[in-house]
Design brief:
- By secondary structure, the protein is α/β, with parallel strands linked by helices.
- It has a single domain, classed as 3-Layer(aba) Sandwich (Rossmann fold), CATH 3.40.50.150.
- The chain is 31% helix and 18% strand.
- It has 8 helices and 8 strands, in the order ααββαβαββαβαβαβα.
- An 8-stranded mixed β-sheet has the order 1-8-7-2-3-5-4-6, with helices on both faces.
- Helix 2 packs antiparallel against helix 8.
- The structure holds S-adenosylmethionine.
């Protein structure tokens, strides 16, 4: 049984009339076309304002390990990992992809787990056509059975720009800026696990992406993620009135994306 058929009955369709349902389904078809099954190397001239991307970790990751806080039976297959031996070459290629698909004054946010962030950092410094402007941290609630050592609940987010100008909005509408003093280097957001739905390993949470997108782009901007997994970057971009184009080699990612579209378009109003 494919993931799609296993979960098909759970796809929530609006409790509204047929017109509303058709409108929603048409919209979903349109948004699905923006998720392309494609190798990152095959993208060119996207002309994005902002790239948000989260490369594989280079740690033999499959997302199926029992120590993760999720029901592994719902985790889809097909995640393409990068070997440690090829990690530096892959990161270099990702930087090429970013550079050739950004606008002149475009910018990118590149996620990294701690294991290979030294490689990501060094490759960015060596890459002359992008400039490292800063590093931020996402702190999250991931704590697999920590009996013998602490766990590292932090992602690094490298901020790079192509030119000398960029978009930065000093306030976002999430708790990151609404509660207390905004802290523009640290983002504290919980993972938003979904139940009864196919799951993508390493799916980024909605509110974290909302905060980053509001800080680093404006409405109408084009946002691109060549390693999109579940496609959360696309979903949040759409919800925040940005355009998007996303891709991954894993077609199961697109199935998760479809389920997430149904979920978020039902949860929030659309039009
Ligand atoms: C860390 S995951 C991204 C998860 C995503 N941020 C989300 O919110 O679901 C990295 C993704 O890169 C994909 N990938 C690895 N190599 C790729 C390549 N050469 N081209 C396209 N996608 C690739 C993997 O299949 C995986 O889905």
């Amino acid at each position: 049984m494919t993931y799609k058929s296993k979960f098909k009955d759970n796809l929530s369709i609006f409790d509204t009339d047929k017109f509303e349902k058709d409108k929603k389904l048409n919209l979903i078809e349109k948004l699905l076309d923006k998720y392309v099954i494609k190798d990152m190397d095959d993208w060119k001239d996207v002309n994005a304002d902002l790239i948000i991307t989260d490369p594989p970790f280079g740690i033999d990751f499959s997302g199926k390990n029992g120590n993760y806080n999720r029901n592994v039976r719902n985790v889809v297959d097909g995640y393409v990992e990068w070997k440690v031996s090829e990690y530096d070459r892959k990161v270099e290629r990702l930087l090429e992809v970013i550079e050739r698909n950004l606008k002149k004054n475009g910018q990118a946010l590149i996620f990294s787990g701690w294991n290979n962030s030294n490689i990501v950092h060094n490759k960015i410094l060596q890459f002359e056509r992008l400039k490292l402007r800063g590093k931020m941290y996402w702190i999250y609630n991931f704590a697999p059975a920590c009996k013998r050592k602490t766990s590292h609940n932090v992602y690094e987010i490298y901020w790079v720009t192509k030119g000398d100008r960029w978009i930065f909005n000093n306030r976002c509408s999430t708790h990151h800026c609404r509660e207390g003093e905004p802290n523009l280097s640290t983002f504290i957001f919980k993972r938003d696990y979904k139940i009864n739905m196919p799951k993508y390993p390493t799916r980024l949470p909605f509110k974290l992406l909302q905060s980053l997108i509001e800080h680093f782009s404006n409405e109408g901007d084009l946002i691109f993620d060549p390693l999109c997994g579940s496609g959360m970057v696309g979903i949040v971009s759409y919800m925040l009135n940005r355009d998007f184009i996303i891709g991954d080699l894993n077609s199961n990612g697109k199935t998760v994306f479809e389920h997430l579209l149904h979920h978020y378009l039902s949860k929030y109003s659309f039009g």
